């Protein structure tokens, strides 16, 4: 999820402004007799800066909430599609396959239904290589002693299909999150950050 970075920065800005105003206000009170003619003008500028900071903070919160809501909807769509595909694995990926008959035509030229044979489990080596790729680690040059890479792993093609579908779902969710971060930085944060200095400076000058 996208943390509310914009809001945190905006809150920090507002806090810094308030802290500066508090320190400046204390200095002015301490030197009131010397700077008395300027107090009203300076105080008005300070209040404008505070109002601008509050407005920018609220805007940042709205931007962050909108972007997080958009990402949540996209990831919900991805989960729905992934779960739908997983439910279809038993129908699309069977544990047996048709084995062509030696004579595909029998009797009066009618095709016979080839018998089905069970698929062998994927090998231990296949499972290990898949897992190495999933976590992004290169496999060792030689397997550990006693590991039979050609032995059946106990996982059939339906299990392999389900694992691949789940992995793709997680990848799509991660891609959506990265895309949301990039869009947030490009379309929300960068323009907002440029307005911060401009609006606070403008409020302090008027």
Question: Would you give an account of this structure?
Answer:
With 206 residues, this protein is mostly helical. The protein has one domain. A two-stranded antiparallel ribbon has the order 1-4. The chain has a two-stranded antiparallel ribbon with strand order 2-3. Helix 1 runs antiparallel to helix 3. The longest helix is centred in the first third of the chain and has 54 residues. The chain is elongated, with a radius of gyration of 33 Å. It starts with a helix and ends with a helix. About 10% of the residues have low confidence.
**Biggest pleated sheet:** 2 strands, antiparallel
Question: What does the average pLDDT come to?
Answer: 77
Question: Strand order within the widest sheet?
Answer: 1-4
DSSP, total strands: 4
Give the DSSP E fraction (strand runs of 2 or more residues).
under 5%
The 3D shape can be described as: elongated
Q: Provide the structure class.
A: mainly alpha
Parts with pLDDT < 50 across at least 5 consecutive residues: 16-36
Helix % is over 70%
| Radius of gyration, whole Å | 33 Å
Number of domains: 1
List the secondary-structure elements in sequence, H or E: HHHEEEEHH
| Tally of individual helices | 5
Q: What distance separates the N and C termini?
A: 40 Å
Could you provide a short overview of the structure?
The protein has five helices and four strands; from the N terminus they run H-H-H-E-E-E-E-H-H. By secondary structure, the chain is mainly α. The protein has one domain.
């Amino acid at each position: 999820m996208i943390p509310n970075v914009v809001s945190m920065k905006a809150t920090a800005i507002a806090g810094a402004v308030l802290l500066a105003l508090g320190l400046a206000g204390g200095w002015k009170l301490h030197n009131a007799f010397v700077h008395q003619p300027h107090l009203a003008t300076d105080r008005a500028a300070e209040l404008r800066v505070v109002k601008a900071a509050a407005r920018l903070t609220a805007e940042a919160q709205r931007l962050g909430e909108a972007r997080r809501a958009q990402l949540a909807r996209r990831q919900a769509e991805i989960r729905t599609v992934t779960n739908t595909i997983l439910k279809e694995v038993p129908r699309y990926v069977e544990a047996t396959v048709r084995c062509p008959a030696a004579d595909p035509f029998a009797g009066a030229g009618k095709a016979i239904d080839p018998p089905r044979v069970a698929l062998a489990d994927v090998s231990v080596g296949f499972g290990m290589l898949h897992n190495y790729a999933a976590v992004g680690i290169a496999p060792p040059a030689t397997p550990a002693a006693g590991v039979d890479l050609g032995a059946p792993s106990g996982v059939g093609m339906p299990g392999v299909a389900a694992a691949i579908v789940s992995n793709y779902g997680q990848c799509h969710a991660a891609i959506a999150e990265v895309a949301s971060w990039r869009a947030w930085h490009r379309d929300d944060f960068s323009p907002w950050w440029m307005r911060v200095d401009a609006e606070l400076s403008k409020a302090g000058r008027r």
